[in-house]
Amino acid sequence: MVQEEMRKGPWTEQEDVQLVFYVKMFGDRRWDFLAKVSGLKRSGKSCRLRWVNYLNPALKRGKMTPQEELLVLQLHSKYGNRWSKIAGKLPGRTDNEIKNYWRTHMRKQAQDEKKNTNKASISPSSSNFSNCSSSSANSPAEDSGTERNDCVELLQVAGENKIYEGDQNMMVYSMDEIWKEVESTEEIETRNDLPVMASTTWDYNYCPDSLWTSTHDHCYFDNHQDFSFFTG
DNA sequence: AATGAATGCAACCGCAGCAGA
DNA sequence: TTCTGCTGCGGTTGCATTCAT
């Protein structure tokens, strides 16, 4: 058999529409199958990535809020570079997004530190963010309690137990509330002994899962249906 | 206005883990 | 038990946009 050449690189609008359609139809599993039936000349892997990082309607778009940024810093100090784990605590954010954010953050931090060392004699106080995170870039701390306190402290410095009030639509959480949220999800996680769902699949309630679950081992695809209007 | 540097983000790659045959 | 294919993860790259000069 001649292997059909796979497309790579940026996705077109047409491809996006097509992928969304088929994911809605069959759910966000069995990516190889989806890639085949959709007629997209993409690998299953590529389709999954596109969906998870961009097309999934559960995703939040736009900049991270200060509380999300703070949470990322804290969770990173807890989990290290386990981005999917961190993303699991930030609904609507992807591991890729967090990873990118972290890289940017680290880059900024490195630059700031460079600057600070240059003028250390002038201004001895470095940023609170870097205090909070730098110690743990590659060594996740076991004891989250102290980090938590550090961050509460950080928040108090920033704004008396409240974070981010700039946008009226934005919820205002205390750090305790955020941590309660984190801990409660962990409790459920350990109690059920189930893996945390990646955030990107949360609230994916319109997916007709039954199309997959009817038979777990085999995917039945109704070939009689005409989807050619998409590929045409 | 032009251009080079910095930044942000989407996408790819390789690997590990898991489940089914 | 071993093999194979699929999925998901983390690291990395490359391109487009923004910023500074």
From TrEMBL:
<keyword id="KW-0238">DNA-binding</keyword>
<dbReference type="InterPro" id="IPR009057">
    <property type="entry name" value="Homeodomain-like_sf"/>
</dbReference>
<comment type="function">
    <text>Transcription factor.</text>
</comment>
<dbReference type="GO" id="GO:0010597">
    <property type="term" value="P:green leaf volatile biosynthetic process"/>
</dbReference>
<dbReference type="GO" id="GO:0000976">
    <property type="term" value="F:transcription cis-regulatory region binding"/>
</dbReference>
<keyword id="KW-0677">Repeat</keyword>
<feature type="compositionally biased region" description="Low complexity">
    <location>
        <begin position="120"/>
        <end position="141"/>
    </location>
</feature>
<dbReference type="Pfam" id="PF00249">
    <property type="entry name" value="Myb_DNA-binding"/>
</dbReference>
<dbReference type="InterPro" id="IPR044676">
    <property type="entry name" value="EOBI/EOBII-like_plant"/>
</dbReference>
<feature type="region of interest" description="Disordered">
    <location>
        <begin position="107"/>
        <end position="147"/>
    </location>
</feature>
<feature type="domain" description="Myb-like">
    <location>
        <begin position="56"/>
        <end position="106"/>
    </location>
</feature>
<keyword id="KW-0539">Nucleus</keyword>
<dbReference type="GO" id="GO:0005634">
    <property type="term" value="C:nucleus"/>
</dbReference>
<feature type="domain" description="HTH myb-type">
    <location>
        <begin position="56"/>
        <end position="110"/>
    </location>
</feature>
<feature type="domain" description="Myb-like">
    <location>
        <begin position="3"/>
        <end position="55"/>
    </location>
</feature>
<dbReference type="InterPro" id="IPR017930">
    <property type="entry name" value="Myb_dom"/>
</dbReference>
<keyword id="KW-0805">Transcription regulation</keyword>
<dbReference type="InterPro" id="IPR001005">
    <property type="entry name" value="SANT/Myb"/>
</dbReference>
<keyword id="KW-0804">Transcription</keyword>
<protein>
    <submittedName>
        <fullName>Uncharacterized protein</fullName>
    </submittedName>
</protein>
<dbReference type="GO" id="GO:0003700">
    <property type="term" value="F:DNA-binding transcription factor activity"/>
</dbReference>
<feature type="domain" description="HTH myb-type">
    <location>
        <begin position="3"/>
        <end position="55"/>
    </location>
</feature>
